[in-house]
Amino acid sequence: MKQIVRVFFNHKTFPNCCMIVLKEKETTKIEKKENVTVLYNGEEIVGYNIVDEQFSKYSDGYQPLNETLINEINQVLGSVGESIDADMEIRLKVGKVIECVEHPESDHLHI
Hints:
By secondary structure, the protein is mainly beta. It is built from one helix and six strands; from the N terminus they run ββββββα.
């Protein structure tokens, strides 16, 4: 099943560490596999921390997911028997206001 994946970097505090959030849940257990730390809530994987020199090229903060980044992540995760099936669907919706009229019961609201 495809997952919504969020990826962050903070090289000043965690050099070359790719922080991956899969679920907004508390981490109750961790498992270290070589350069990958698997984060669990109970038995459910909620994220990963990967330390690898290849991630030094990314800027600090949130990184929008793209094919290149997910492939780099899965290459490292694959070496320890893990992988992510990321949902790459763009969830940004754009709209256009066609008409705006004053609200009949307010002097500062519009419809």
